[in-house]
Design a protein that fits this description.
This protein is α+β, with helices and mostly antiparallel strands. The protein has 2 domains: about 110 residues, Helix Hairpins, CATH 1.10.287; about 150 residues, Histidine kinase-like ATPase, C-terminal domain (Heat Shock Protein 90), CATH 3.30.565. It contains 6 helices and 7 strands; from the N terminus they run H-H-E-H-E-E-H-E-E-H-H-E-E. A 5-stranded mixed β-sheet has the order 2-4-5-7-6, covered by helices on one side. The chain has a two-stranded antiparallel sheet with strand order 1-3. A hairpin with a 5-residue loop joins strand 6 and strand 7. Helix 3 runs parallel beside helix 4 and helix 4 runs antiparallel to helix 6. The longest helix has about 70 residues. The protein is elongated and about 105 Å long. The model has no long low-confidence stretch (mean pLDDT about 80).
Length: about 270
């Protein structure tokens, strides 16, 4: 009987301990849920702030760009060579600032519009060429050669045209930014057996250290702070491109060696 009484007391003690642990777990769960709600609220505030600030910055910058361009074209009177040189420098920096603002806007849109994309049938080469037209002037300033598929049969894919253009814009901008003068950028298409086409963008740029490659698609990440100061940017371009490619059922893969260039590749579904 004494043994039974001791066992009953022990079981009662264990039961009370379990109830105490359960209460603590419930409290912890509630605290975590509240912390999660606060984090979501802060994240939304951050996204809204980025969007609002970006819009406010872009409006005056577009005006500066427009008036600077008109002065360069002689709309306000003759422009002497030295004035032309200074105005062109100013205009290049305006374009750079607008690119940074567009990165912030694209980031905030991706944060708030994470729904599935509406895909359409399109010629991959057409979207590629539209992005190439935008980047060629910057590439030519550095004497960079861009080799891309030409004269091929149309390559029909399923994609969101505007978003796919953003992917190419970011990959090309990245390649030109980190490729030294007189370097090379190469674009390739390759059919895969699984009904997809593999797209790769490679350059002869500075490359990415092996230990950094796992982080380059993180938002706001820069390989080195010194590189950030030298090359500019918020570290959003690759993060935005990766999000878009994921919505297309793929991932951007990177192959690189420091000092030996970089290749980014991803796939798209071919037209059925």
């Amino acid at each position: 009987m004494a043994d039974l009484a001791a066992l009953a007391i022990q079981n009662a003690s264990l039961f009370e301990e379990l109830k105490r642990m359960n209460r603590n777990l419930r409290k912890t769960k509630l605290a975590l849920e509240e912390a999660n709600r606060e984090l979501k609220s802060l994240d939304q505030m951050k996204t809204n702030l980025l969007s609002n600030v970006s819009h406010e910055l872009k409006t005056p910058m577009v005006a500066v760009k427009g008036y600077t361009s008109m002065v360069l074209k002689g709309k306000a009177g003759p422009v002497v060579p030295l004035q032309k040189e200074y105005l062109e420098i100013a205009l290049r920096n305006v374009h750079k600032q607008l690119d940074l603002i567009d990165d912030l806007l694209n980031f905030s849109r991706l944060e708030t519009n994470g729904q599935a994309l509406s895909l359409e049938r399109m010629d991959l080469a057409e979207v590629l060429n539209e992005s190439l037209q935008l980047i060629r002037p910057k590439a030519e300033e550095k004497g960079i050669t861009i080799a891309a598929p030409a004269g091929l049969e149309p390559c029909r894919v399923l994609a969101h045209r505007k978003k796919l253009g953003q992917v190419f814009d970011n990959l090309f901008s990245n390649a030109v930014k980190f490729t030294p003068e007189r370097g090379n950028i190469t674009v390739r298409f390759k059919d895969q057996k699984n009904g997809r086409v593999l797209i790769s963008v490679s350059d002869t740029g500075i490359g990415i250290p092996q230990q950094k490659q796992g982080k380059i698609f993180d938002r706001f990440y820069q390989v080195e702070s010194s590189e950030s100061r030298r090359y500019g940017g918020f570290g959003l371009g690759l993060a935005i491109a990766q999000d878009i490619v994921k919505w297309h059922g793929s991932r951007i893969r990177v192959t690189s060696r420091s000092g030996h260039g970089t290749e980014f590749s991803f796939s798209l579904a071919k037209e059925e």
